[in-house]
Amino acid sequence: MASASPNAAVASFFFLALLFRASFAQLSETYYDQTCPRLPNIVRASVKKAIQSDIRAGAKLIRLHFHDCFVNGCDGSVLLEDAPGIVSELNSPGNQGIQGLEIVDAIKADVEKECPGIVSCADILAQASKDSVDVQGGPSWRVLYGRRDSRIANKTGADSGLASPFETLDELKAKFAAVGLDTTDLVALSGAHTFGRSRCVFFSHRFANFNGTGSPDPSLDANYRRFLEGVCAAGANTRANFDPVTPDVFDKNYYTNLQVGKGLLQSDQELFSTPGADTIAIVNSFAAREGTFFKEFRKSMINMGNIKPLTGWRGEIRRNCRRVNSNSGLFGGEGEGEGEGHGVM
Ligand code: HEM
To answer: Where is the Plant heme peroxidase family profile domain (predicted)?
Structure first.
């Protein structure tokens, strides 16, 4: 058998080295510096515009990023709708009622105008989450880029991996640990419930016969409970503010609310009301100093954004965030033509 020439062997070695490097590339702040230098400005302007017409836009965007990263890593998989070969994660119970896809479409359209085929939907979610927090009064941080978009969804992974508002603290910790996030990340990231809304269906079980006890959830402040019962009299799909004090501001009030039994979801209040829990001290420290919360929130958002990204040559840059490119190849280069896209909600 003829042996390979030294030149071919060297070429193969460099090809494999390149492939290896590309596959395990790290995210970086400078990823789009040459290819889309104005990306941060474009996304920020688009997020601001969205918030001007919908005060909940920022809350919707960061929740999408969270649900993206917890299933197969931050790869835009949450945005894929049902299609041949795709069972959408949006059908999972944890994603029922999730909103904001049309906001992502609008941001993506703004980005595509200036940098066609360059920026992934997964990176857009990461950047838009930062802007959402910052525009609503929260901390800012330097976003890392270089994620690529998946060509698959994982509905089963969404069924098992997304956190539920009915879970115990131990169950929540386990779901965060499964994606490499620790208890501080859990408490800090839950602080995103300082803005946005929840439908009554997710917390009204706390009003009566909680866990079969015949009584309301004892960790829910009685006056707040009566107030929420009034809100929810309009129906299970009515939305209540997560933060009754400053509902649309990103501040530390989520934690001061927990200290007085005004966490909206059972899963929120457990961070403070589970007897002996290590999360109580963390809640108290965030409630005492907004700067401490903001510092940890920044770190935890980076940690969450780093969950198993698709980098290098894996995945693709989707043209339409709701569906994979029709001619997906190894490099995921070209997308589908105009007019093929899914209808925008
Ligand atoms: C710790 C486990 C968590 C649970 C059990 C949970 C659960 C929920 C539920 C049930 C809702 C209401 C959904 C609806 O009414 O349709 C919600 C909304 C929201 N979640 Fe979470 N969440 C968790 C963690 C997080 C994290 C880590 C973030 C972001 C970093 C986040 C951001 C939000 C935001 C901003 C909203 C409001 C969205 C809106 O107004 O449309 N949540 N969450």
So the answer is: 26-325
